[in-house]
């Protein structure tokens, strides 16, 4: 089978003879005498498109044959036309070429190997077997984009044996026979079976989005070309909306958020102080007593409710105290506490009676009851 995508990654249409077509588990499996559809491999997803009027859903290589999985059959022996989904293909070309520049630069600068590569539906992820700092990545990003802007030629092909023997190239495993090499001047020399742009300028831009420690090294998130542009547009729109809410210019949004956070912190401190005063006033007005007691404060948040239960126990307003606060339309957040008794059996009993969920320690439990207020009060 002739692999037309190796002759030119830019070939969008082709004709081919149908050698076989069999129904498989995920569709009809079609083998052609030649194809421009790239099969999944090397971290790059398969091409999709139209073949003889049916849609190609997946492409993979098995035992030297490229199998096209389609949503309909084709007649063996006929000649059909194929058209790949070009936007998808070109995005993969941008991403794969961008990954090579990044991986080559990291290998050259830090000596780390690319040990994992995946083109996902949202971003490209690359795993390296060494630790990097975010500042290191930003420097690599700047250098990678300089190579892109320089619009250098990208070579993707099969060098002669004598040239290959003297070539220092990256590879994840030992290779024999004809080896396809991708070369980007100043960026990378690597064995690769994927599709690539002809010049680095077509990548557009590379942007790192994330980095996490992973299996003794790091996993980085990468966006290239159109996908990087779409990500910028999405974040720009979000920043514009935030700026409008804050009545600030987009470039001043961070400072405005900092001020808002400080104001919110001060307001929460004042609310907390007022809430503690309110709790002290309410508890002081209660009569001392023993036994079980429950109180409902519909507008309380969980933290003030716990504070109120603790205050009631400390001031001996009951041996066992249960506080209730509204939690949704038909639910009540509860806090159940005691200084002397184990609350877990009673909590289990109440959860059963009131369709509740929750638990905790011997001295205090919390959770949610469900039901109408009158029904909850009747049980309590």
Major β-sheet profile: 6 strands, antiparallel, barrel
Order of strands, main sheet, comes to 2-3-7-6-5-8
Residues in β-strands, percent: 25-35%
CA-based gyration radius: 33 Å
- Total number of helices: 9
Head-to-tail CA distance between termini: 78 Å
- Low-pLDDT sequence parts: none
DSSP helix fraction: 25-40%
How do the SSEs run, as a string of H and E?
EHEEEEEEEHEEHEHEEEEHHEHEEHEEH
Can you give a write-up of this model?
With 380 residues, the protein is of the alpha+beta class. It contains nine helices and 20 strands. The strands form five sheets. It has a six-stranded antiparallel beta barrel with strand order 2-3-7-6-5-8. Strands 16-17-18-20-19 form a five-stranded mixed β-sheet, sandwiched between helices. Strands 9-10-15-14 form a four-stranded antiparallel β-sheet. Strand 12 and strand 13 form a beta hairpin. The radius of gyration is 33 Å and the shape is elongated. The termini are far apart.
What's the short story on this structure?
The protein has 380 residues and is of the alpha+beta class.
Question: Topology, please?
Answer:
Elements: E1 2-3, H1 4-7, E2 13-23, E3 28-32, E4 34-35, E5 49-51, E6 54-62, E7 65-70, E8 79-84, H2 86-110, E9 114-119, E10 124-128, H3 134-149, E11 155-157, H4 161-165, E12 181-184, E13 188-191, E14 206-214, E15 217-224, H5 225-246, H6 253-284, E16 292-296, H7 302-314, E17 320-326, E18 331-338, H8 344-353, E19 357-360, E20 364-370, H9 373-379
Parallel strand pairs: 1-4, 16-17
Antiparallel strand pairs: 2-3, 2-8, 3-7, 5-6, 5-8, 6-7, 9-10, 10-15, 11-12, 12-13, 14-15, 17-18, 18-20, 19-20
Helix pairs in contact: 2-3, 6-7
